[in-house]
Amino acid sequence: MASLEILLILVVSMILYIFLPPLLDGIERKIKAKIQTRYGPPTIFQTWYDILKLSSKELKIPPTFQFSVFLLVLAFSISIVTIYLLSYIIISLDIYSIALIIVLILSIHSLIAFISTLSSNPFSIIGIFRGLTIDIINEMGFIASIPLYYLSIKTLNLSIKSLLLLILSTIFVFIVSYVASKRLPYDLHEAEPELASGSIIEFSGPILALYLYIHLIDRYTITVLPVAIGLSSIGLSTPLYITMILVHIIAIGIYLLFGVIAPLLGRSRIDIAVKTLMFIYPIIITVWLVVKVL
């Protein structure tokens, strides 16, 4: 019975990971339109419609993208493995699973970046190098933030020092998650008004659909990861399926909060964006280490 329950939890959780990202993007688009006093998409399922419509188009591969389909399928396969592990750590959390999830997420980012570099279009090249500049800095923050966050939760007690460590690491991990989602002001890889969609300018049809779907899954998994680690580390006395539901409810709330924040911000200049992250991340890490040592 226990094995059947675990299997059902894994299956339901993976279905949610597969179905929710485009749906949440549709909700976010409606929220963004409301904030900007626009009509927006007609339904919250619009992103799903867009992906399905693009998937039904004829597959046309530019000469420079001969291997892009294989690489995108590989990135999608890694995404599926990632969401399986994210579902599994709710049941059994260990540092090795967390490390593997981090590696898989970074692998997806690397594959997508590599695919974009195959284009000879100057706008795509500018877009991808803007994106890479931010990604390199933010992924170093990502690699640092998750262990600090995990350690803060595992050593949590009622002392002021412990609570301060948790607050610092939580702020750190959610800043990293927001930047990794490539929302404003950090969507520098596309920058539609000036780069005409930048790094994805030559994507179309099923290739564009798969790219968008991978990006949305990645955006949601990065939001879920700290939530899953947090609830699993606390060791709630609730049944596993309740924990799984709580993980997704909290992650959805954070995801939509990010969606509210994004339209309130303007796009950053690449130099300011880089300087901001290089200023904030070392300060948070240094303060965390100082508090830990004291």
TrEMBL record:
Going by the entry's taxonomy, the superkingdom of the source organism is recorded as Archaea
Question: Membrane topology per the record?
Answer: Multi-pass membrane protein
Task: Give the subcellular location.
Answer: Membrane
One Gene Ontology cellular component: plasma membrane
> Mind listing the UniProt keywords for this protein, alphabetically?
Membrane, Transmembrane, Transmembrane helix
Q: Sorted alphabetically, which Pfam families does this protein's record hold?
A: NADHdh (PF00146)
Q: Which PANTHER family does UniProt cross-reference here? A: FORMATE HYDROGENLYASE SUBUNIT 4, FORMATE HYDROGENLYASE SUBUNIT 4-RELATED
This chain belongs to the protein called Hydrogenase
